[in-house]
Amino acid sequence: MNQPNPEKNLRTAEFVTLIALLMSLVALSVDAMLPALPTIGEALQVRHANDAQYVITSLFIGLGIGQLIFGPLSDNIGRKRAIYYGLAVFMAGCLISTFATSFEMMIIGRVLQGIGASSPRIVTMALIRDQYSGKQMARIVSFVMAVFILVPALAPLLGQIILWLGGWRQIFATFFTFATILFVWFLVRQPETLHPDHRSSLSPTVIGKSAAAVIQIRSTIGYTLASGLIFAPFVGYLSSAQQIFQEAYTTGGLFPIYFGVLALAIGFGSLTNDKLLRRYAMHQIANSAAVATTITSFIALAGLIVFDGLPPFWLFMIYMLAVFVFMGAVFGNLNALAMEPLGHIAGVGAALISAIATFVSVSLGTVVGQAFDGTVYFLVGSFAMFGLFTMAAMRWAVR
Q1: CA 223 to CA 368: how far, in whole Å?
Q2: Are 259 and 155 in contact (CB under 8 A)?
Q3: If DSSP states are collapsed to H, E and C, what string results for 187-230?
Q4: Of the candidates 332, 348, 327, 302, which has an alpha carbon nearest to the alpha carbon of residue 390?
Q5: DSSP secondary-structure letter at 196?
Q6: Are the C-beta atoms of 54 and 100 separated by less than 8 Å?
Q7: Cβ contacts of residue 207 below 8 Å, gap of 6+?
Q8: CATH of domain 8-188+204-397
Q9: Residues 293-319: pLDDT tens digits?
Q10: Could you tell me the residue ranges of all domains in the chain?
Q11: Sign of CA dihedral 249, 265, 351, 4
């Protein structure tokens, strides 16, 4: 395995692109599936229309489980090998879902995809932390997010095209091919960033001490909870997006386009965040964006009464564009703020804070998605309420 060598570090452009695509496995695995949810539900005979949402949320469950595995593992065997193993598990999950003959088999494959995708998702954060810190780390994360956001912007359209040409099983075959390409690229180009002298034992005692150290850092836990809370309504949106756009607003085949536009809004927010970081502190930007999300959502929630919970589509899009720009300025900062004190235990730290944030967001976001009733009352209300909770968590973190 390659040894850490600063002279061999990738140039920023290639590093950001590679890391962004590795992280995008999660977004690709979620967003490309959205147009196919009704077809999968019908083919595998789900009982209720909302049950098809579990194809999305089951991947997030696997993601939370996998982060607890691959974070500590990367501290022991190195970043590269941990990502290799994760990609292999992801590809195995893709094969299971491709040949699924029941909804239960589909869910098993999706959980495995989530476990496998958690490795590049979580280990890349530790890999970034190995090389950067502070505002420089936040800027790299923002650049990664800006590139990464192109995937969710295009993924639903890709899924729709594959669905038209070959059916939903071919979507999983595409995931498998994409993961194989990333495996080879990462193997050939990315050097190991964790020196053997800095690796830790996998013993329960060592991991327990590292986890205890993380939990005792008030700012890390506060920003982790904030990250999970602000992401919860976003999980609810992802779960119910197909129903909102195609059933409530009857956008038909244009759904991937509208979804992609909103995804680009998050990318715009991330790019704006990079510029703001040159003048303001990370916690100031994150707090201001959370305040803006909360106020905008409460105003929108009050306005929904006039439209019986379903405003004109153009008005709904304006609201979502504004909220997603704000959220683009929140995500990278909260992750960087939570990771900032964890340089000496980046692997375990990244795993623990990401797992906590994931379980918080998935458990609450699933409730939001399952509450879909043909209106957007619950979705807008969740952005408002969880925005308040996020502000409280950030305030507690810096008290």
Answers
A1: 22
A2: no
A3: HHHCCCCCCHHHCCCCCHHHHHHHHHHHHCCHHHHHHHHHHHHH
A4: 327
A5: G
A6: no
A7: 72, 348
A8: 1.20.1250.20
A9: 999 999 999 999 999 999 999 999 999
A10: 8-188+204-397
A11: positive
d(CA 390, CA 231): 10
Reported as half-sphere exposure (CB side, CA atoms, 13 A), residue 242 has a value of 26
Cα angle: 369, vertex 353, 286; to 5 degrees: 75
Tens of pLDDT, residues 18-41: 888 898 899 899 999 999 999 999
Q: Is the pLDDT of residue 5 over 80?
A: no
List pLDDT tens digits, range 220-261: 899 999 999 999 999 999 999 999 999 999 998 899 999 999
Predicted model pTM: 0.84
The span from the CA of 32 to the CA of 398, in Å, is 38
Can you tell me which residue has the tokens 């779960």? 239
CA pair distance 381, 378, nearest whole angstrom: 5
**Residue that is written with structure tokens 């602000």 in the block:** 230
Q: Quick one: tokens of 180?
A: 């194989």
